């Protein structure tokens, strides 16, 4: 056996405690798999005295994560502090400068500074690993970087924020409004301190940006993710989508097109019978499509101490076993900028309009859609009180440009009340 | 960049041609990911002249796979011949003896000779990789060996023979008998030359034995897999299981218990709403359960040129990138023999009996079950002609021993016609 791999763990929240628990419970199993011992030299967190349900005896303590990262007796910094600036970034940079490898669960840090950090790491011959940053316990970074490395990737999709999926599932199952489901998720402690990270799609957008870089050999480009949260999804849309055979998910989609890389994180309709449509509650799912392999679906817990610690440990074991890859699977210096001017891949859309109850109203709407080049695949009109009737339309594939043209012309028909709703239907 | 990795490919069936196609279509992408060129030095197959839809120009030809494996200008033997004896085994042994690494898709070879081959490889400092041997394009060997390396694995389950799943799906969807669905699968070319490899569960059993070794650190033990094929599954059971909310799958399950390793490959009932239950057609699914990560589900194409070639290329890229692991994730010399005397983990069971239409018949059956310690969770009795009525029973958890005791006592009731059917319900 070679010498032990010595960890310094910065951040002792639930994930940090989970990592320590695995290391303390399974030292022989881990050593057998790694071919060497894995030890913890030192730990660091904000508050030393706090009870974390896990023993810290035998580990040196550092108040300062940067000091931890620089210790001579640490081979790998395990960064579990979080946040895209401050001590997390400082500690990662200090570790790389001091010639240490880094394992991190920090999606925000890498989504925003990933390109610069990867270039720094690779220039120094160091490695940054981040399996835990994307979809919790699902080994999707590994599946994409290594398992599907023989494939030209066509599309990456994912439901990667369990809180959003929980809220949408509760709205459908229990008939809650968005606000009620949000309050329930909050009460269960599912929401980030800043809930817009969850429901605004930012957290999931960070994850998508990281997967895109690996999948397409492009620079991490979180700014290029078209973000739309779930705050505008209504119980009516959930019910009526279900009526048409769909479920609404906060779905991330990344595709490399002739015009560049499109990345979207937005509510989408998916067929209720598809694996994505069947994903209920807080679970995550990632769908990877390659030219040779076809479609691979990965499903598992996207958050929580155990699953996230499992992913951290996968990275630690890879380092212990001597696996050293560029951060995004190929040298960072060779990654290209490829943002598409605007997401434009055609798709079918679900439209919901409130129609005034006048003869010929539907014909006028259909006429407007037709003039914009939008053809109708399916349509339902419901009876309703109050002088308006909801109309649901599923279009054939069309573009957002065509939809905008049609929506601009709809007020002129004088039969549509309020704002029409349009939600993309992702063909899975 | 370091020097190219030079492949020798033995076997040019659909998978071999698929591998060549990837290498020919994506040389730059593969080199960027591998950090070096990947080249093919020589190929070998039975018939040189056959049109395989892929150019062989520029590759040396060997009639003999062993000669290919020994070539000085080959770094890695890619063995795609198949079969657990003969040229496949000879070529792999020759490659290891000549100091080459091996990538293989050969589940039979490794399920039967894996322990010896792994010991040989590791003694020589060589590596055997076999992602393509299990569940086609799904990167499950990697997920288990590396992605979940921080977990003590509790259970591995899988639907890993697409042909069996196709037959069972067609029986349910189209109301075909087993023989009709078998004939349809045969007509579509889905069956192995020896169909008992598929429908007898042997092929899937090979795969389960390989996953068990990785999951539990045990010697590959195909002989220890309790095999039961799908030939005895009837359309009645499929329909009536559906009526109780279940689907029947040829399911592999491996668990390490206090009594040793249990491996079963047999028709099981799973809830129709579970990921395994929703898997229809020829797709594969593997479910991995770890103490930290919880449940991870992987789904994808289990066969076919593209998916299998994708898995072969993942192994080739790992070798090109310098990843070198023991064959089963930890040194073969340290793997333990752990076969349980007999699978004995309790489970609920689905029972189907034909009851004569006499007063008190059901009470007598319930009495026999109760005396064997089997308690009934749900029961349905159907009207039927011919003097007997089918009765379906879902038991609470019980053992096979208790079932055997009850079945031995059933004839004494003189109200049960024919052989009762018992199918395990796997709790997923």
Structure description:
Two copies of one chain form a homodimer. Chain A is an alpha/beta fold. Chain A has three domains: 5-104, Rossmann fold (3-Layer(aba) Sandwich), CATH 3.40.50.720; 140-302, Dihydrodipicolinate Reductase, domain 2 (2-Layer Sandwich); 349-424, Alpha-Beta Plaits (2-Layer Sandwich). Chain A is built from 14 helices and 16 strands. Chain A has helices at residues 14-25, 27-34, 65-70, 87-97, 107-123, 140-147, 162-174, 178-187, 196-199, 202-216, 235-243, 305-320, 361-371, 400-409; strands at 5-10, 38-44, 60-62, 76-79, 101-104, 128-129, 153-159, 225-227, 246-257, 260-271, 283-290, 294-301, 349-356, 376-381, 388-395, 416-424. In chain A, the strands form three sheets. Chain A has a six-stranded parallel beta sheet, sandwiched between helices. In chain A, strand 14 and strand 15 (388-395) form a beta hairpin. In chain A, helix 1 packs across helix 12 and helix 5 (107-123) runs parallel beside helix 10. The longest helix of chain A has 17 residues, at 107-123. Chain A is elongated. The model of chain A has no long low-confidence stretch (mean pLDDT 95). Chains A and B meet through helix 1, helix 2, helix 6, strand 12 and helix 12 of A and helix 1, helix 2, helix 6, strand 12 and helix 12 of B.
Topology (elements, then pairings):
Two copies of one chain form a homodimer.
Chain A lengths: L4 E6 L3 H12 L1 H8 L3 E7 L15 E3 L2 H6 L5 E4 L7 H11 L3 E4 L2 H17 L4 E2 L10 H8 L5 E7 L2 H13 L3 H10 L8 H4 L2 H15 L8 E3 L7 H9 L2 E12 L2 E12 L11 E8 L3 E8 L3 H16 L28 E8 L4 H11 L4 E6 L6 E8 L4 H10 L6 E9 L4
């Amino acid at each position: 056996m070679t010498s032990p791999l010595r960890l310094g763990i910065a951040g002792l929240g639930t994930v940090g405690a989970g990592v320590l628990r695995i290391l303390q419970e399974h030292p022989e199993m881990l050593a057998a798999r790694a071919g060497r011992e894995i030890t913890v030299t030192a730990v660091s967190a904000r508050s030393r005295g706090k009870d974390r349900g896990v023993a810290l005896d035998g580990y040196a303590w550092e108040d300062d994560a940067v000091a931890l990262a620089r210790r001579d007796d640490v081979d790998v910094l395990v960064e579990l502090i979080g946040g895209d600036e401050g001590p997390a970034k400082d500690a990662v940079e200090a570790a790389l400068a001091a010639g240490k490898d880094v394992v991190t669960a920090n999606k925000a840090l890498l989504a925003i500074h990933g390109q610069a950090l990867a270039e720094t790491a690779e220039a120094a011959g160091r490695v940054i690993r981040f399996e835990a940053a994307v979809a919790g316990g699902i080994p999707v970074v590994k599946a994409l970087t290594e398992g599907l490395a023989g494939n030209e990737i066509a599309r990456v999709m994912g439901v990667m924020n369990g809180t959003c999926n929980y809220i949408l599932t509760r709205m459908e199952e229990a008939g809650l409004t968005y606000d009620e489901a949000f309050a329930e998720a909050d009460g269960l402690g599912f929401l980030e301190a800043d809930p817009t990270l969850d429901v605004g799609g930012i957290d999931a957008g960070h994850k998508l940006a990281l997967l895109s870089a690996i999948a397409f050999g492009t620079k991490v480009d979180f700014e290029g993710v078209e973000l739309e949260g779930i705050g505008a999804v209504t119980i009516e849309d959930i019910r009526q989508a279900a009526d048409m055979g769909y479920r609404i998910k906060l779905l991330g989609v990344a595709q490399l097109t002739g015009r560049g890389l499109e990345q979207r994180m937005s509510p989408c309709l998916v067929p209720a019978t598809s694996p994505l449509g069947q994903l209920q509650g807080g679970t995550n799912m990632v769908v990877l499509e390659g030219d040779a392999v076809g479609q691979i679906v990965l499903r598992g817990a996207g958050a929580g101490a155990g699953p996230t610690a499992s992913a951290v440990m996968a990275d630690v074991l890879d380092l212990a076993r001597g696996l050293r890859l560029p951060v995004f699977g190929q040298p960072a210096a060779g990654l290209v900028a490829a943002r598409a001017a605007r997401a434009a891949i055609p798709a079918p859309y679900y439209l919901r309009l409130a129609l005034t109850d006048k003869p010929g109203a539907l014909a006028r709407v259909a006429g407007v859609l037709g003039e914009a080049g939008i053809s109708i695949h399916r349509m339902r009109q419901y009876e309703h009180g109050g002088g308006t009737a909801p109309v649901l339309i599923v279009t054939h594939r069309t573009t957002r440009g065509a939809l905008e043209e049609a929506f601009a012309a709809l007020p002129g028909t004088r039969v549509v009340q309020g704002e029409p709703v349009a939600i993309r239907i992702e063909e899975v």
